[in-house]
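Throughout this chapter, every protein is written as a compact record of paired, labelled lines. The reader may check this reading against the record printed directly beneath this paragraph:
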Amino acid sequence: MSLPEPLRRRLGSFSRTVFTDSQRTGPRDPGDGADNEVVSSLPLQMSLYFNVYFFPFWWLSIVVMLHLKYPDLSDYYKFILVTIMILTSLIEVIRLYLGYMGNLQEKVPELAGFWLLTLLLQLPTILFLLFNEGLKIQPLERAVNSIFAVFLTFQVIAAFVTLKRMVNKLATHFRLNEFDQLEEQPIPGFYGLGKEKGAISISGGDRRARDHTLRA
């Protein structure tokens, strides 16, 4: 299972635009082994691992608290909380999958999708649940949402750093491939132009020699 190809291209283009280090033009050392460099983030992977086990506990806690306080909530907040629970559950499954795939297999589009989902959807949603007093926040809710917010904040930062390293590695690898191709395939017409000039010089020399013979 992977992302649709059009979405992969868009995320890849977004990653190259946002995360490419414009000051870096190539590897620091020709022998730095860019192809063998591992850019996956161990802290990010550990965070994702613990997040997978924490999420069911968070979901159960929120559902129990929602069931207990549901009669006391206004219809407006009832609708909001139920919608948030459904969307957050779906997004979290997709987000964790993209995080695992992008980090472990060093896939830039998947990791970029994980970063965007975390920054634009999950983190604002959890902060809304954490700080909106109109939801009649209970102590257990505040505790689990605080832990979730810490997870998400750390993952946003770690994924950003990892994406920059991945994109810079791909950019360096692309430039090295271009350089190798230029070395293996000389510029078309360069040698042909040299031969043409040589032929013109020889023909010109022959003509001058014939003129000199006629004059003699």
Remarks:
- The longest helix spans residues 139-184.
- The helical segments are 5-19, 42-69, 75-104, 108-131, 139-184, 190-215.
- The mean pLDDT is 80.
